Amino acid sequence: MTEMPRYNPESEPYRQSAASAAAPTAPPVMNTIYFMLLGAAVLQVISAIFGLLNAGSEAFRTQIVDQLTAQNPSGVTPEVIDVTVAFAVGGIIVVSVLAVAGYIVIGLFVKKGMGWARIVGAILAVVALSQLIGLTMPGGIVTILQILLGLAAMVLCFIQPAAGFFTARKNFRMANKVR
């Protein structure tokens, strides 16, 4: 008995043709975006240093005393002020470490053409605008530059040629997806 030919879309020639397609190459703007995000991470570190210097200043302590006195005139002690300053310093350090790690991780995945990274990066860039509240100078200038650099990097992700690269990477991943 002879064997009948069968239709099999998973046959060897089909898999080879899909797998043999070359992965899309990143346009030069992807490196620019990556370095812009790394620059924003460096500016975040500088901004954190200014924030820590501000939190250790006598003007900051005076501001805390004024705010606490307005809320509770009888409960302002040196210990309360010290704890408030410690929380401010801890908050600055934690937020800065998370922001720097976020910039680096988002930058790495954006450079690889991962669409989720540009969406998350764009959301975080908009959320970073909240840093503009309560700026103190001269550190505020660094914060403004950091926010502008992050926003500009995310805008570049959504215009050509970067947008085309993200689409091509998505299509390549879908074509090579194991069924």
Any descriptors?
179 residues, 0% strand, mainly alpha, single chain
**Structural class of the secondary structure composition?**
mainly alpha
Helices and strands, in order, run as HHHHHHH
What is the residue-averaged pLDDT?
Answer: 84
Largest sheet: none
Radius of gyration: 25 Å
Considering DSSP H and I runs of 4 or more, what fraction of the residues is helical?
over 70%
- Uncertain segments are 11-18
If helices are DSSP runs of H or I spanning 4 or more residues, what is the number of helices?
7
Our measurement of the CA-to-CA distance between the termini, rounded to an integer number of angstroms, reads: 33 Å
Structure, briefly:
The protein is mainly α and 179 residues long.
What's the topology here?
Blueprint lengths: L11 H8 L8 H28 L2 H14 L6 H34 L3 H13 L11 H19 L4 H14 L4
Commentary on this structure:
The chain has 179 residues and is mostly helical. It has one domain (28-174). Helix content is 73%, strand content 0%. The protein has 7 helices and no strands. It starts with 11 loop residues before the first helix and ends with a helix.
